Amino acid sequence: MAEETGAEPADAGAGGAGAGERVPLTLIAREWGRIGVLGFGGPPAHILLLRRLCVERRGWIAASEFEDGIAATNLLPGPASTQLAIFTAWRLRGTAGALVGGAAFILPGLALILLLSALFLTGHPPRWVLGAAAGAGSAVAAVAVQATSTLVPPSLRRSGPGRARLRWSAYLLLGAAAAVLAGPWLVLVLLAAGAAEIAFRRRDRTAPGPVPAPARTSRTGDTPLGRPDQGPRRTLPLLVPGLVPGLAATGGLGALAWVALKVGALSYGGGFVIIPLMQQDAVERYHWMTDGQFLNAVALGQITPGPVVQTVSVVGYAAAGVLGGLLAAAVAFTPSFLFVLFGAAHFDRLRANTAVQDFLTGAGPAVIGAIAGSALPLALALGRPWQYGVLALAALWLLVLRRGVVPCLLGAAGLGVLAAVTGLALP
């Protein structure tokens, strides 16, 4: 948006890079690329690395603005940590910075996951590779449950008391049922939950009684998230207009593009919601993958650096080789760039918009329910008794001991290799 007025975002805001410093694009490419290489562990690791770079080491962005950037990008569908990487680069060098920084953040993980896809999805991989894939895939259902457990408390607090809490429970159950039963129509359930909550809360506001407190905007008034003079005063829409579900009916690359677009534009609540959004399409509807291969794809998305949404690249590779993987990644990440490029200057107003807040209050629990519901078909997809033993150990590690996801998946892969070399049957 900076290019519309000739102003650079880096010139605005106390504590940013605007105190006379123009950050070179080569430096952005190097630093964001380094985070893309080292960002194992998902969004928490990405946010930590971005904060250390932009706030602590370089002082490019004020701490309060960085925190508000986290909150604003978490309001958007798609991979929030990727959008934060794009936003922080935009904050330094406008559109050019966003494109360079976002690409540098995404590409290392994309290259690695495509290489691993070639290894794991080839026609006749070595037995130990099959064992590692089967072991890591065995733990995925436990990872889905762990992701749910971390999302429930903040969503429940956000919902409010009384009837709002009951609606939260209903949305949660609807999302879980949709993940198990509705397959590719899950997106409609998520949208319906958000729309229903907008209607309920609008009715409550017009009824006699106390007026609900307005949504929180920026914590500090001295460091706004964007320039107020950049572009017209409008709120970034949450939904991409003009989605064309007809792509799904065309099959081939058109269907793949539609699946990737759902992942990139309509995945609310974190990276793991891509599982119920993709599973039915990839396995049941288009038969690009087997159940076991889909589990492998999810595991690869978790253990490689960069955003978890990279999982869609594995699905693309299974559907149409390297071209399919690149197409799926391009379609899935394009909404994130568009949301930031056209909306970053308006993030404060986005966060203050009542309809946006209400939509997310309804869609959020439906997403959490969908993630929880996805654990059932993931567990049922396991084909060998020893895999359920690995699943039990993964559940103990993640849910009882509360340890990390990446060590869990690597350990499960190691158990799979052990199963393969000792002669146990593989899926």
Automatic annotation (TrEMBL):
It holds the Pfam family Chromate_transp. It is a multi-pass membrane protein. The chain crosses the membrane at residues 98-121, 128-148, 168-193, 236-261, 314-347, 359-379, 385-401, 408-426. It is found in: Cell membrane. Keywords: Cell membrane, Membrane, Transmembrane, Transmembrane helix. Belongs to the chromate ion transporter (CHR) (TC 2.A.51) family. InterPro entries: Chr_Tranpt_l_chain (IPR014047), CHR_Transporter (IPR052518), Chromate_transpt (IPR003370). The lineage of its organism: Bacteria, Bacillati, Actinomycetota, Actinomycetes, Kitasatosporales. Residues 206-234 are annotated as: Disordered. The keyword Membrane applies. This is Chromate transporter. Its main location: membrane.
